[in-house]
Design goal:
GMP Synthetase, Chain A, domain 3, binds malonyl-coenzyme A, binds adenosine monophosphate, globular, 3 domains
């Protein structure tokens, strides 16, 4: 049987003339309605275009795009045509894209028209075959070229182990690693979640997440597609617009920052969410306080789950049973989760409360990092478990809590930032002698990036000027929200920077 993920998703599509995706009206823009037939036909046209380009087997198509339904159709087209999809955060700037394009060597890059000049230059540098454009207003060279293609397309034959997508995740060394996800990895997860979260006829998903990450693309979009559920599609999260459309929705997924922002809206009430059956949170820890406030305002206990780019979803709080604040719930069916001690032994269910390293195994777990066999080998145990880098503990009900990370990672509003990468950008500034980057508590983003910087003798620059410089070269979510200039970094007797002390002083 063809294991192509598109074939699996398409089995769930609704009737051809039914609405699959609604983009609500905004300002002077009228509402747009895409039927299931539109989804099939438009993705077929793009798939036919990709096939006409005679790409090599295993070719990658990189997308650096503002969120739009057409960007989702491009993803579906890549699945259909059997080429590997490589989504990139639309906040990335030239230095960041240079690395991804150089590392993944895509044959096709699709970018927004506003970035075409500099992306085209990168394309030339890295010998990309074609650079197409696609805007969030349904314009650009990709759609023009695809318009001439037929609306019928035969879905490419794929095996479960064949690569479907590469998702870059930040790396401890400062260099991102491309997690290779197969049609089988994604397919197993989407069917598991369909039953675990009880997707049903008549569900309407309010989609307000970005679609260049696991959460918005593989969890939210896949869930609605395979269930034939309509999506109300917002190109950007805006708490007021979410409030406006919640009365027509039954499912919403978000990062904790989105729930914090919804709680700031006076309009959030039980009456507003009367049609909702499920709010899901993930990508970052949901504070028990947010969970409780949301329950008292809406009557809904947010279902928190845990996942990663390398593994898609791993655990989930119960749909019908208990949803425990501060936990990420039970391992999903087919997913093995274990917690290990430093000596390598595994915690038993009775070792309640003891903290160790979380390791996972299952059909959802990726095959390895793109062209990094040593790194891949390091991250898997001899018996095939993937080391998540998260620290956790079990409770008496077998629910997992994430209590920290043994990877030096900051999660800000659901986006991952590795301090090492930001330190290297700071250290590249001519005035800077050295720097240290830490995560500090932030009401809106949960954690925020903050930095301490030591200047070279006689050099002078303000924190504001450093922030402005970084903003012009890297994605805004990575730029420290706060920088302090110190005479020296606090170090221990071994010379190691004491990040705990720094965190305390930056918080103050
Ligand atoms: C935006 N900014 C951020 C930020 N998002 N800074 C830090 N952290 C973030 N997450 C910057 C903006 O560029 C802007 O900078 C300033 O902060 C204020 O922006 P804003 O307008 O308030 O932010 P907004 O655009 O509304 O974005 C906030 C957000 C967004 C929460 C909607 O961050 C978001 O969509 N997060 C979801 C990320 C996600 O999908 N993660 C899933 C990863 S998958 P300036 O300089 O312009 O002022 C994964 C696996 C799993 O982790 O388990 O799911
Ligand atoms: P990413 O590399 O972007 O896929 O991020 C994956 C990381 O996000 C995980 O390793 C966790 O550290 C974190 N994460 C995801 N979901 C949760 C959650 N519900 N609670 C706490 N951390 C989470």
């Amino acid at each position: 049987m063809n294991q192509n993920l598109y074939a699996l998703l398409a089995r769930g599509f609704g009737a051809p003339q039914e609405c699959a995706i609604e983009v609500p009206a905004q300002g002077d823009q009228p509402a747009l309605y895409y039927t299931w037939r539109d989804v099939e036909h438009a993705s077929a046209k793009i798939a036919n275009l990709l096939e006409s380009l005679k790409l090599r087997p295993g070719a990658r198509v990189a997308a650096h795009l503002d969120k739009s339904v057409e960007a989702l159709l491009l993803y579906l087209a890549c699945l259909r045509a059997g080429v590997v999809y490589l989504p990139l955060n639309n906040g990335y700037q030239a230095a960041e894209l240079d690395y991804f394009i150089g590392n993944a060597a895509p044959e096709i890059v699709v970018c927004s028209p506003a970035n075409h000049e500099w992306v085209k230059a990168l394309g030339k540098k890295h010998r990309v075959k074609r650079v197409y454009t696609l805007s969030d207003q349904r314009t650009g060279s990709l759609l023009k070229a695809a318009a001439l293609q037929p609306t019928r397309h035969k879905v490419a034959q794929k095996k479960a182990a064949d690569l479907a997508a590469i998702l870059y995740t930040s790396g401890t060394t400062g260099r991102s690693k491309g997690a290779m996800l197969s049609h089988g990895n994604l397919g197993s997860n989407v069917t598991t979640l369909q039953t675990t979260w009880r997707w049903r006829a008549g569900d309407v998903l309010l989609h307000a997440l970005p679609i260049f990450h696991v959460h918005g693309l593989f969890v939210a979009s896949h869930g609605a597609l395979i269930n034939g559920s309509k999506m109300i599609w917002l190109n950007k999260f805006d708490a007021k617009r979410v409030i406006e459309h919640l009365p027509r929705a039954s499912v919403m997924m978000g990062v904790p920052t989105m729930y914090v922002r919804l709680l700031d809206e006076p309009g959030l009430s039980r009456e507003l969410v009367r049609r909702m059956r499920l709010f899901i949170s993930g990508s970052a820890p949901l504070l028990p306080d947010t969970f409780q406030q949301f329950e008292s305002r809406t009557g809904h206990r947010i279902l928190e789950r845990y996942g990663m780019s390398e593994t898609v979803m791993l655990t989930s709080n119960a749909y019908e049973g208990h949803r425990a604040a501060g936990t990420v719930g039970l391992p999903l069916p087919q997913v093995e989760v274990r917690i290990t001690r430093d000596d390598g032994s595994t915690l038993k269910a009775s070792d309640v409360g003891e903290i160790g390293a979380i390791q996972v195994k299952g059909p959802n777990v990726f095959g390895g990092y793109w062209q990094m066999p040593e790194k891949t080998a390091e991250e898997f145990t001899g018996d095939g478990f993937f080391k998540t880098g998260d620290m956790g503990k079990w409770d008496a009900n077998g629910y997992l809590s994430i209590v920290g990370r043994n990877k030096d990672l900051i999660i800000s509003g659901g986006y991952n930032v590795y301090p090492k990468e930001i330190e290297s950008y700071l250290d590249d500034q001519p005035e800077v002698f050295e720097s240290a980057v830490v995560g500090i508590e932030h009401r809106d983003f949960g954690e925020a990036v903050a930095a301490a910087v030591v200047l070279k003798p006689k050099a002078s620059i303000t924190p504001q000027a450093l922030i402005a410089r970084l903003k012009s070269s890297i994605a805004a979510f990575k730029v420290p929200k706060k920088i302090v200039i110190l005479a020296e970094l606090p170090r221990n007797a071994m010379g190691k920077v004491q990040k705990n002390l720094l965190r305390d002083s930056l918080k103050a």
